[in-house]
Structure formats: C-alpha cells, structure tokens
Amino acid sequence: MTLHFHRLDELDTVAHQLLAEGRKYSVWLFEGEMGAGKTTLIKALCRALGVVSMVQSPTFSIVNEYTTHEGRSVYHFDCYRLRNEAEALDIGIEEYFDSGDYCFIEWPERIESLWPATYYQIHLSADHVGRRTVETLSVD
C-alpha cells in the first residue's frame, strides 16, 4: 500500500488505514531518513490505538511502554543509538517481539538479524515540498 499526505491533520486517517492493513502484525518496522516523520506517525498510531499517556521518542531510553485505554501495552523502540545487536538483546528485545503486543521500531536496520519472521514494514519519505509518502510491506 502507498499513501501520501501533506498535512499533520491527515495523520490520524493515515494511522487508521495502516492499522486496518497491518492489524495482524505485532512488530512494525519504521524506516526513513531523519526527519521523515517516523515518531510523528507512531504518535498518530498510538492515538488511534487509544494510548492514554504522552507518546515521545525513546531516543535515550531505547524503549518506551505505553498503555491503551483497554490496558494493552504498546512498545516504542528507537534503535538509533544502539551500537550493536547485542545491546538490543540485553534489553530483551526478543521477549518484546514475542509478547504479541504492538512493537513499533524506529531505525530497525540496526537490528536486522533480530527481526522476527513476520512483520509489517513502513517506509516514510518526504519530498522537497513536504509531501510525505508511506509505503508498506507485509512479511509473513
């Protein structure tokens, strides 16, 4: 699926479309250049899922846990600062993946050999006028 948006107020619609398409996947991989909108899109997805706490980038903590109004956990990872895959293993990333809860992962290419067998991949890009493109890939 390919989606385009120009304005932030379109993100909630984009988030709902992504959740409809990717609903069977718990691990979501977000790729794109710095500033492409990965964290902003994850915030919209968390809103759509009913997360009740403030969503922010886990750049320094590596992982943030959020809770939906139904009590379900959502995990948000930022792998940018990881030096190697061993650091991801040290925080128990495989246990998060196996939890069945949503795991939204920014900079997943840093832990590529740890990806599970099934995942939903999202690539974000921005053009010179600020139009964002979201391309998805379902991997089973």
UniProtKB/TrEMBL annotation:
Transit peptide keyword on record: no
Biological-process GO terms, alphabetical: tRNA threonylcarbamoyladenosine modification
Keyword tags: ATP-binding, Cytoplasm, Magnesium, Metal-binding, Nucleotide-binding, Transferase, tRNA processing
Signal peptide: none
A GO-annotated cellular component: cytoplasm
KW DNA-binding (keyword) present: no
Superkingdom, natural source: Bacteria
Pfam families recorded: TsaE
One GO molecular-function entry: ATP binding
Subcellular location: Cytoplasm
Homology family: Belongs to the TsaE family.
Designated name of the protein: tRNA threonylcarbamoyladenosine biosynthesis protein TsaE
Gene: tsaE
